[in-house]
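Q: What changes when flavin-adenine dinucleotide is included in the input?
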Amino acid sequence: METTTPKRPIAVIGAGFSGVIAALHLRRLLPADQPVLLCECTDETRGGAEDGAGENLLNVRATNMSALAEEPNHFTDWLKRQSAGDLPGLHETSAGLFVTRALYARYLQALLDAAVADGARHRGLRPLTEQVTDIVETGRSGYALSLAGGRTIEVAGVVLAQDSLPPQEQPYELICANPWGERAAAPLSNDQPALIVGAGLAMVDVAMSLRRRGFRGKIVAVSRRGLLPTRHAPAADWDTPHFTLAEEQSLTQLMVRLRDEVFAASEQGVDWRGVIDSMRPVTAQLWGRLPPAERRRFLRHARRYWDTHRHRMAPPTADEVAAMLADGSLEVVAGRIHGFEVGPYSVRARYTPRGAAEATMLKVQRVFIASFLDRIDGTSDPLMQRMLQRGLIRMDAQGLGLQVTDALNVVRDDGSTDEHMWALGPIVRGVFWECVAVPDIRVQAGYAAVGVVARLREDAPKSGFIV
Ligand SMILES: Cc1cc2nc3c(=O)[nH]c(=O)nc-3n(C[C@H](O)[C@H](O)[C@H](O)COP(=O)(O)OP(=O)(O)OC[C@H]3O[C@@H](n4cnc5c(N)ncnc54)[C@H](O)[C@@H]3O)c2cc1C
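A: The predicted holo structure follows.
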């Protein structure tokens, strides 16, 4: 029997890759008249990390960037259907095809537009350009979302898809805790260096963006180990290793085994990249089985090495970085930053280069922080802060993100499972580790959507849900 009671929407918070794909899966699986709200505080759909204009290349080959796990060629087929003249942003390399962020964002937007148009009759999928500032439980197994504009919306469930949470901004204009924020966009002069804290893919993104904005001064990147990401290159496949129980329990044994696999692969002419890529199907399982103390050791000692080999630069990006290093316009320093003395027009960074006995001062015009938020509670995001304070969510054991169940249901501070709230994407990396790139997030998105559908079915007598 059909009900006339309007259905409360499912709210997806964040329209980055995770949120868009979760919304698309929900739209496919839910009845047409079940509304889905896609809440985004900016007016953009972002295709894989931000970089301002979107001209930087994605670091994953186009062949791995389909939004739909069950249709691996979905993105490359979409590319083929676009007219060639209309497609800036394609880069064919010996290691495969890479595209710009802007082009990928176009793809996501096209998928989203089609889903919105498809659901228009029932107002099935509704984008909402407003920041969600708070979430409060209602008595009807659901939530009330507070929006920045002052409105409140009752929803039947919430899917959290907010990565890249903003860090706490520093009280100084010249220090940009968010390298994509407003103060980072202020003009730079070419006669003083700029400092980037971090040496990973985010640093590369910031450096490339500074160049594209016309900055010709020197860029100094400082990180504890000074390790740059490696570059993509053609690599043959390698069989995923079967790890022993002892290896799964010990970081040292895992690392030894990985080194042995790389050695065995090279003896057969297979590049180390093939071995690293072969780990992908088992990384989440390995992470899940590592004892907490071993996970902490990984984060302290091995994470940077893993990240630099696992998350690699597209060859054209790696070439640009190499050219900048060669002409001295980019310098990457291993060292520890102790603090900043901030003046009206410049910043003096005090740091000790690795291996040196004494600290050095570096005078720069601006500092860009391009490193991870160490802990999610370090964010200035009001929604995350309020939910943490209210105990609606709990951080994972390492504080990297949110604690969720295997079914992606959020775990509350008291340890109970929230049956009406899910989280996906890099925000749950503390639980699954391997969930920061499209090939993994798209699987989670489908999984979360199935969970939402199952929940609404169970709630049907209360909510009038009919499939
Ligand atoms: C430098 C770099 C390069 C990368 N390159 C690749 C790549 O080539 N391929 C790949 O697969 N992955 C890549 N990744 C990883 C990938 O970009 C991210 O993991 C992925 O985009 C995360 O998507 P997301 O939707 O979870 O988060 P985001 O893209 O951060 O989206 C979250 C969205 O939520 C919104 N939001 C947050 N809070 C609220 C709120 N309270 N109310 C409303 N809206 C809110 C934000 O505005 C934002 O748009 C890269 C990452 C980095 C750092």
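Observations recorded in class: The pocket of flavin-adenine dinucleotide is lined by residues 13-19, 39-42, 46, 48-49, 58-60, 131-132, 161-164, 201-202, 205, 381, 383, 425-426, 436-438 (CB under 6 Å).
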